Amino acid sequence: MRILVTNDDGINAPGLKVLEAIAAEIAGEEGEVWVVAPAFEQSGVGHMISYVHPTMIAELAPRRYAAEGSPADCVLAGIYHVLGGERPDLVLSGVNRGNNAAENALYSGTIGGAMEGALQRLPSIALSQYYGPDNARSADPFSAARAWGVETVRRILAHGDWGGDGYTTFYNVNFPPVPGEAVKGLRAAPQGLRPGVFHSVEGMLSPGGRRFLWVRGGDQTVRPAEGSDAAVNLDGWVSVTPMRADLTAHDALDPLEAALT
């Protein structure tokens, strides 16, 4: 199996090393793991692509590249430049430092990389590690991802829906904020929405008197609806969420059609 690996935390991120180890076990001794990751952190860029300016890419080691672009750029670079059009069998994006559950999924560059893989009609999975008081300051905050990453990917590959002529399904995985030995198992879960939680900005003055704005995320401990991704994560489960790039609100089409005609 040939696996293309990317992330949004950057080529030197510790979560990328975790994912490389997961990918190596999935690929097997006869397989190949190719890494094309952003040269610098790209958190929060979503599915952005560098459409109006070029992307510099550098080979750092055999099958290991850094690109000055987004995770989606890296997937495109991997497929069409690094692999020369020889398509990978699987795209893995992550393991992100922090969760990409609930509303975070809409901003996530990690998910953007997997989404681009799906748009290229490739099986694709995004993986993220929830941080919380039980793991954030531990010696290995990625313990849950290390312990459950291979099993999670294998089960998705075995049972996932990869077909269809339209927008194909990709999968968003969030490992819970607990040590690996405390993980309860896997749960299929819809994307949640943390009530009353919003991204915002905070202004700061530089020493030179110029004003800058920092984007701030909301409270990650707020529970969304029971059974949704962040809720099961907070209860100690790995969440697996099937996603598609189709943004249509299908349930609103018929009422809108009736109102417009």
Automatic annotation (TrEMBL):
A divalent metal cation binds at D8, D9, S43, N96. One of its GO terms (molecular function) is 3'-nucleotidase activity. Residues 3-193 form the Survival protein SurE-like phosphatase/nucleotidase domain. GO terms for cellular component: cytoplasm. It is found in: Cytoplasm. Belongs to the SurE nucleotidase family. This is 5'-nucleotidase SurE. The gene is surE.
